[in-house]
């Protein structure tokens, strides 16, 4: 897996809680990233968008290591790994689907049209000027501008008025959505700009509804989960499990449609709940997310699902032990030994000592 993202840390945290032993292989562009050294072996790799060099490096790693499971942890990973999966006869070891399905999750306009094709609810999404004008006419301001090919909330902006919209249109590359269910204190949030841009600022999102599903190698639905999360500057701060049949129906419908289009593995929906009780997706991702480890503590361990399916083991029964309905995300510390980072920088590969310190239990080779 690529081990530089927060999603990767979630996956590693899940693996660390399992009883079985793993031999973990990480890939990263940064030799100093702490995630490298939570693995048994780490490789430095080029940026994913540096093709074909990146694919050549991945091919060499796959041939050398022959992993049982290959996990995309970033949106950029999906297309690269989907191409490699196709080269290897749709190898189910890859936790992704077809190249066509992967392309959906890196194009926000394509995801919107995917939802329309399957008759699924989705936030109105526009790019052409006439469509954007119609969106503003129907929903008013604020609206949200998202880079069409962006990821991880980077570059997303809340547009307050027509002046903001004109600037975004000149820059180009955005799609636009209504700001569904905005915070009630919206005017108070904007007031902080009266004397300039605050040094620290984020639009509070205490109630992002998150659906997660898992599509098995045969295209069947292997699991689904619903929660409401509090977001702090684009990152999950807290997660609460919810039982809601109508929301679960939306999650399952999206998973079924994604499976038809060739997706495999995890599917993440980010939704807003409207005043009439409807759940409307605003974002769809084909990977694990920033609350994956929290979901595992809440009784839905989707990393365990992937491991069992990869090994041909029966899926875990419905959890009967302790699960925590509310989980908070808190910052923690990570250490990196300079000698380890220097080895990875110099050689392009680092392997831990058999008895070295690791957060995830190692396997003997």
Task: For the structure shown, list the relevant keywords.
alpha+beta, 12 helices, globular
Tell me what the structure shows.
With 365 residues, the protein is of the alpha+beta class. The protein is built from 12 helices and 12 strands. Helix content is 33%, strand content 20%. The chain has a 6-stranded antiparallel sheet. The protein is globular, with a radius of gyration of 21 Å. Residues 355-365 have low confidence and may be disordered.
Q: Outline, from the CA principal axes?
A: globular
Q: Main sheet: which strands, in order across?
A: 10-9-6-7-8-11
Which regions are unreliable across 5 or more consecutive residues at pLDDT < 50?
355-365
Spell out the helices and strands N to C.
Answer: HEEHHHHHEEHEHEEEHEEHHEHE
Total number of helices: 12
Residue share in helix? 25-40%
State the end-to-end CA separation.
Answer: 19 Å
What percentage of the residues does DSSP assign to strands (E)?
15-25%
Largest sheet: 6 strands, antiparallel
Task: Please identify the oligomeric state.
Answer: single chain
Mean residue pLDDT: 91
Radius of gyration in whole Å, from Cα?
21 Å
